[in-house]
Amino acid sequence: MMRRRAVVLLGVALAGCKSLPDKPKAQTMYDFGPAAAAATATVPQRPALLLPEVEVSGVLETTALLYRLGYEDPYQLRPYAFARWSAAPGQLVRQRLRDVLGRERPVLDQSAAAALARRGGTPPPVLRVELEEFSQLFDSPRESQGVLRLRATLLENTSGGERLLAQRSFDVRRPAPSADAPGGVRALTAAVDAAAADLAAWLRER
After folding, report:
1. CATH code: domain of residue 91
2. Is residue 28 in a domain?
3. Contacting residues for 172 by C-beta, under 8 A, at least 6 apart
4. Alpha-carbon distance 154 to 196, whole Å?
5. Does residue 190 sit in helix, strand or coil?
6. 11 within a domain of the structure (yes/no)
7. I need a labelling partner for 93 at 20 to 30 A (CA). Which of 29, 31, 40, 109 fits?
């Protein structure tokens, strides 16, 4: 009887383990990898743009690689124990946006924009980006997607302060190739690249 009960309890424990994604067994650090090369080498022709630090809040201020079990509790964010980003998500997203947008225009930070203003140049428009969601969502124990949600606000830099020109939210999802942290990294990287391309197209229309 005791042996049968032990077998049953072991079966329940193993079934519970299947509801969680595969986890790295050693500490691993990730980034987005190198940005894809542009189709053709071009010299930036569009007006310069000021891109401040991407705004984040709460757990996105850390380097944790996050996931949600959508089929159990989609409201709970969970960190992978042994997988982390090489920098906070906001920093990684800003660098990738700068890489992509920089193919068409100069992309400045705060110090470069201030130096331009001191030399009497026209203040460039400001693109403020808020990162609202950045996680791997598991629809089932073996299927997941990278979810990226951000809000972009384009502002004119005037002597009287910033004036709103346009605003848009981007919600991008890409399937993960595997049900683990590496799969989540690849899905989120693809989502960032797609959002950057969408953002560049949106700015061309402004």
Report:
1. 3.40.50.10610
2. no
3. 147, 148, 149, 191, 192, 194, 195, 198
4. 15
5. helix
6. no
7. 40
5-45 pLDDT tens trace = 444 344 434 444 445 666 556 789 999 999 877 655 555 68
Tell me, yes or no, whether 60 lies in a domain. Answer: yes
Q: Which residues are CB-contacts of 21 (< 8 A; sequence separation ≥ 6)?
A: 67, 136, 138, 141, 144, 179, 180, 181, 184
Please state, in angstroms and rounded to a whole number, the distance separating the CA atoms of residues 135 and 74. Answer: 11
Give how many domains the chain has, as a whole number: 1
Q: Identify the CA nearest to 130 among candidates 161, 98, 170, 100.
A: 170
Element (H, E) at 172: strand 161-175
pTM: 0.83
Range of the domain at 198: 44-204
Whole-angstrom Cα distance, residue 123 to residue 121?
6
3-state DSSP helix/strand/coil percent for the chain, to nearest 5? 30, 35, 30
